[in-house]
Amino acid sequence: MDVEQLMKLIDKVSESDLTGFKYEENGIKLQLNKKENLVMGTTAAVQAVTPEAVKVTGASSKAATDLEEGVQKQTGTSEAAPVGNVVKAPLVGTFYAAPAEDAEPFIQVGDSVKKGQSVAIIEAMKLMNEIESDFDGTVTEILVKNGQAVEYGQPLFRIA
């Protein structure tokens, strides 16, 4: 499948009522999932596809960008691989960086944290769930904003 056919496929899935689509050909697996009129593309096994093959110039499709990033991750051609461990959301909900509106955030970039230390709260179904660090280290990046909705497994913090 060439890039032009791939883009047509992404557009067709975007326009349809489908919420998911899987395609496999010659050891290449493609999975498209749509949520809120946004198509997300992932590749499961890439053997013959290179980042250059899926490079799309002038495309406004988020799916094409996600697909290209997925190929870069799997082929190891990403420009700079982030360093450190990632604390991920253990549940779906709303992310809060502080225990109260007027309180200081649990952590900030540059703070050192210990395994088991509270680093955030995720509100789910009116319950406040404290999120603990799975790692010892220094916070190098906060990947979500206060009050932002987060999904299960979504990266929250990077700790080196």
UniProtKB/TrEMBL annotation:
Q: In which pathway does it act?
A: Lipid metabolism; fatty acid biosynthesis
Query: What SUPFAM superfamilies does the annotation carry?
Result: Single hybrid motif
Note the InterPro entries from the entry: AcCoA_biotinCC, Biotin_BS, Biotin_Carboxyl_Carrier/Decarb, Biotin_lipoyl, Single_hybrid_motif
Keyword Lipid metabolism attributed: yes
Which UniProt key words apply to this protein? Biotin, Fatty acid biosynthesis, Fatty acid metabolism, Lipid biosynthesis, Lipid metabolism
What cellular-component terms does GO give this entry? acetyl-CoA carboxylase complex
Give this protein's Gene Ontology molecular function annotations: acetyl-CoA carboxylase activity
> Could you identify this protein by its name?
Biotin carboxyl carrier protein of acetyl-CoA carboxylase
The record lists the organism as Dorea formicigenerans
